[in-house]
């Protein structure tokens, strides 16, 4: 990566760039009220990362999941976007990539239109937002955009990075702790994104000298 103009860094969204727990909790609470179905929203927000349909499968029979997905996304537009703040260091992480002469992209399992609404609401300015991709499936978008680094909070993000032959930077801000992230194959685990600019500066120096 000696030419820093070629640097592209991918970021996950939920619990990496944004704290989506308040909005998702409100959505599951509203979904339970509208459908009369018990949903433990407190539990649901402890396992963010996988696609929505995987969480819905804990609470609804398979034949109802398509309709519940549509209803959830309608509710999400009402409550989920504005309730989600940026994670500490999120803006600075994207700015650090730009300052290094690189591009930043968001690759997330979240429904792409909603992912873009989050980015717009918070005023973040990545170069691209790609949604509806989980774990190893993220590798296609990472390769397409030439990402050499992928930052995420879940072991699924680590698997996506490894599949894409990208450097896996994990942040211990989601449901997976440092041990789980390292065991999954993360190259480095940061406490949160506030440590990312310093890490990136060191990483780009090392790569330029390689």
TrEMBL record:
Organism: Streptomyces ossamyceticus
SUPFAM superfamilies according to UniProt: HAD-like (SSF56784)
Protein name: Haloacid dehalogenase-like hydrolase
Pfam families in alphabetical order: HAD
Domain of life: Bacteria
TM regions (residue ranges): none
């Amino acid at each position: 990566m000696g030419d820093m103009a070629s640097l592209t860094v991918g970021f996950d969204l939920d619990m990496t760039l944004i704290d989506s727990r308040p909005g998702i909790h409100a959505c599951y609470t509203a979904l339970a009220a509208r459908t009369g179905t018990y949903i433990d929203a407190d539990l649901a927000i402890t396992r963010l990362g996988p696609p929505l349909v995987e969480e819905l499968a804990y609470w609804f029979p398979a034949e109802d999941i398509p309709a519940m997905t549509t209803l959830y996304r309608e509710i999400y537009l009402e409550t989920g976007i504005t309730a989600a703040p940026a994670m500490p260091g999120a803006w600075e992480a994207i700015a650090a990539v730009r300052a290094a002469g690189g591009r930043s992209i968001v690759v997330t399992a979240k429904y792409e239109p909603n992912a873009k609404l989050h980015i717009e609401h918070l005023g973040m300015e990545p170069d691209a937002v790609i949604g509806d991709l989980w774990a190893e499936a993220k590798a296609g978008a990472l390769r397409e955009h030439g990402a050499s680094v992928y930052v995420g909070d879940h072991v699924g993000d680590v698997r996506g990075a490894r599949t894409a032959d990208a450097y896996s930077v994990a942040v211990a801000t989601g449901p997976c702790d440092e041990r789980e992230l390292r065991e999954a194959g993360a190259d480095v685990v940061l406490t949160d994104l506030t440590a990312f600019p310093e890490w990136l500066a060191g990483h780009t120096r090392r790569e330029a000298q390689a």
